[in-house]
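Below is how a single chain appears once it has passed through the pipeline. First comes the sequence as given, then the structure the pipeline wrote out for it. We keep one example in the README because the format questions we get most often are answered faster by looking than by reading.
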Amino acid sequence: MNLTDVRYATDGHIATITLDRPDARNAYSEAMVDDLITAFDAAERDAQIRCIVLTGEGKAFSAGGDLKRMAADEGMFEGDDAVSLRRSYIMGIQRVPQRLARVDKPIVAAINGAAIGAGLDLACMCDLRVASQKAKLGSTFVKVGLVPGDGGAFFLARTIGFPRALELMLTGRVIDAERALAIGLVHEVVPPEEVVPRAIALAKEIAANAPLAVQLTKRAAYRSWETDLQTALELAASYQGVVQRTDDHREGVSAILERRTPAFEGG
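Resulting structure:
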C-alpha cells in the first residue's frame, strides 16, 4: 500500500490509521484525503480486521485545513469562483465523510492533541472518541471566515446535540478535554501517554464480540437515528434474521451456558 500522509498498521483484529503530517499539525492535504480513503478501504476489505483506531502523529490529532495553503489558494483551496470551489470540496475533502459513513466496522478516534476545525469534524465522523488530557477541540471555522465545508455541522450536531453544537460553531470556541467530556463530545479522557493504548484497548473490547453482529448493530444504530420507529423496527428484525442463524450466535449462546469465553470466527 503506497501512502504518503497517512500510516496504516494492523495488529490482530485491529487496524490503526495514523495521520502523518506532524510538521503541519496533521492538517489535510490532497494526498491525505486519498490516503485515508485507501486506508479505510484496506481495513474494510481485510476480514481479519474488526475495529479501526484513527489517531495523529506528533502533538496534534488534526489542525483541519492547512492555513498556509489556504492563504495561497492552493490545492483543495484553489478556485476563482463559488462554482469551482464548491466542486473542489465535493470532489476533495467531502470524500472523507462519504467514505467513513460507509464503514461498517467501528472506528475509535484516539485524539492525541488538538482537533480543530475539520480535525474535530474528522473525530466526530468516528464512532467513539478517547481524548488526551492535553487535547483541545473546537469548531473554529467562523474564526477564519468559513463554514464547516466538510459536513461538520451534521457530524457535530449528531455527536453532542444541536444546541451545544450550534454554540460551539457560532462562537468558534476552543474547549479542553474535560469540557468535551462533560458535554459528551468525547467518551473518555486519559493522560497523553495512554490515549492510543486506551483507544486500542477499547477497540479490542469491541473486536472480542461477534463481528457481523457488531457491524449490523452499528449500522442499525445510525439508520435508526435517522428514521421513524416503524422503519427502525423493520430494520432490526431484518438484521436479527441475518445473525440469529450464524455460527457466532450459536457460539455466543454456548459460551454463556458453558461459562467460558466465546471464540467468535466471524461466521
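The chain has two domains: 6-207, 211-257.

See the next section for the split statistics.
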